[in-house]
Specification:
about 120 residues; mainly alpha
Length: about 120
């Protein structure tokens, strides 16, 4: 496993950058903001802003469709998709931990008969 190098960002700067990028993406919910926060901590402010620039370029060229071609991704959807495909598996698991939990295939628990209180 590769060493995970975390960028040194002050709390004040981190909060400012997360608010800035979340605002640009139109993200108001806590989970996307947490993903942005983790992305900035792991890869740095410059990387997070570079992703925004890539997102803007895609949006200016008509956006990005979902895999099933039913609609375009949201601006935030494009941003997070780019992050997912560019991050190493180790960083991806740290930035998007809930994604990896969904991918786990857990066996169903055995069924237990109901108790009868007769």
């Amino acid at each position: 496993m590769k060493a995970i190098i975390m960028e040194q960002v002050s709390r004040k700067e981190l909060k400012k950058v997360v608010a800035e990028i979340a605002g640009l993406l139109g993200e108001k919910l806590p989970t996307p903001k947490e993903h942005i926060r983790r992305l900035v901590i792991l890869r740095g402010v410059d990387y997070a802003r570079k992703l925004w620039e890539e997102t803007l370029a895609i949006e200016e060229n008509g956006g990005m469709m979902l895999p099933d071609n039913t609609r375009r991704r949201t601006v935030g959807g494009v941003y997070f998709h780019l992050a997912r495909i560019q991050l190493s598996p180790e960083h991806r698991a740290l930035v998007f931990p809930s994604q990896w939990k969904k991918d786990l295939k857990l066996p169903k628990p055995p069924s237990v008969p109901l108790l009868s209180w007769n």
